[in-house]
Amino acid sequence: MKKIASGAVVLVALGWTGSAHGADMNYGARAPYTVNQPWNGAYLGVNLGYAWGYVHNNPTEPSGLAGGVQAGYNWQTGPWVFGAEGDIQVTGANDTFAPWKFSNPWFGTVRGRVGYAFDNIMLFGTGGLAFGELRGETFGLSESHTRAGWTVGAGTEFGLTEKWSAKVEYLYVDLADSNFTITGAPNGYRFGVLRAGLNYRF
To answer: What are the pLDDT digits (tens) for 70-87?
Structure first.
């Protein structure tokens, strides 16, 4: 849990640093974005990050790179931004603690987002449904379960141009327990993911 909580601390530090740089950004002949300019509408993007966590009722702690795509829609009223976003991720998160190996080949989320925008920077919180696969292996036997759960997180998004934005976000994901025959116990995957992304607004 300490490792997962540290992701939130890193995210807050990155967000404050990015906000400070954004305030000093040299726009040249172009004025900074106003709060009602950049965030409305549909968007599509990609992301890459790192996931780390633990398997409930098992000593393994799967971790590894995670990357995928996201799509969403924002509605803006004044500085407030409300939206919905879905993503699907492929991950290399795995760990072996003899005689077990657990891995999380993929996961996805469907979330609501609430943000506050100033100039070309938006701070947001997010939460909703999570789903994904937990795979266990031992003594040549393999067993996979796909489970639903929940996720919550926060992030910072930066408007780069009228159409492009970049983001840094942290999510905590809880994939619910299911009974694994190979361990004789209910196992689920709890993990954090810290990632950077790039979005294009239509």
So the answer is: 999 999 999 999 999 999
